[in-house]
Specification:
By secondary structure, the chain is α/β, with parallel strands linked by helices. It has 10 helices and 10 strands. The structure holds 2'-deoxycytidine-5'-monophosphate. 2'-deoxycytidine-5'-monophosphate binds next to α2 and α9.
């Protein structure tokens, strides 16, 4: 697809483990346009709050957020995220940051700042595949294409375990059964609840989004379905 032909904004929203990150990256690659991981932005603000020791102070978190310089190194795939010039791509994936990301995501002023920044990034990029929880509902209500990805919670928990498992001999070593599966499943259900109950920018299916249940789909099948929809409706 010719990226210079016309501007194209594609949003992908959905819960943790729905496959949206991998699908968004691959879709962006196949369309030849940049990919934006908005979850990384919330994670970076939460990381900063933890480092500053202000995680319990929403007013200071919002103030800090206005002063932070959040940037992406687009020469990498996926793009690295820079916090005041420091590469925090690995730091924001630490479990203690994942657990605390709600201090950024639940803060209406942080959401406002980040939504503004996301629109600016889209403006500069021209075309974008952007993924998160509120991209099709709040940030880009006029996006050209909107997708909402789901998968049943057990499958999402299995994917999460596979993600956390070091790859040995080409496959995950942990079987992801029993107590571990139950544990991760509980965490996923809690995160769903928190994401859906948020007063501002909650996880929600945009009314005009195409919903894809990826439970029984490979990433390639998911992205093929998206490409087909885009090609048929452009
Ligand atoms: O997609 P992720 O797991 O990296 O997102 C981290 C957290 O940020 C997640 O709990 C929900 C929140 N988030 C959000 O509220 N809005 C977005 N657009 C993206 C992520």
């Amino acid at each position: 697809m010719d990226k210079n032909k016309e501007k194209l904004i594609v949003t992908i929203d959905g819960p943790a483990g729905s496959g949206k990150s991998t699908a968004a990256l691959l879709l962006a690659e196949r369309l030849g346009i940049p990919h934006l991981d908005t979850g990384a932005m919330y994670r970076a603000v939460a990381l900063d709050a933890l480092e500053q020791g202000i995680q319990d102070d929403p007013t200071r978190i919002a103030q800090r957020c206005r002063q932070l310089v959040l940037d992406f190194d687009w020469t990498k795939t996926p793009a690295d995220i820079l916090l005041n010039g420091r590469n925090v791509a690995a730091a924001i994936r630490q479990p203690q940051v994942t657990e605390m990301t709600y201090v950024a995501a639940d803060n209406p002023l942080v959401r406002q700042e980040l939504a503004t920044l996301q629109r600016l990034i889209a403006q500069k990029a021209g075309s974008l595949v952007t993924e998160g929880r509120d991209q099709g509902t709040v940030v880009f209500p006029h996006a050209n294409f909107k997708f909402y990805l789901t998968a049943n919670p057990e499958e999402r928990a299995r994917r999460r375990i596979a993600q956390l498992t070091p790859q040995k001999g080409g496959g995950g070593e942990r079987e992801g059964g029993g107590a571990e599966l139950q544990n991760v499943l509980q965490q996923i259900l809690q995160r769903d609840q928190r994401d859906q109950a948020r007063a501002v920018g909650p996880l929600a299916r945009p009314h005009d989004a195409i919903e894809l249940d990826t439970t029984h789909l490979t990433i390639e099948q998911t992205v093929d379905a998206m490409i087909q929809h885009i090609q048929n409706n452009r």
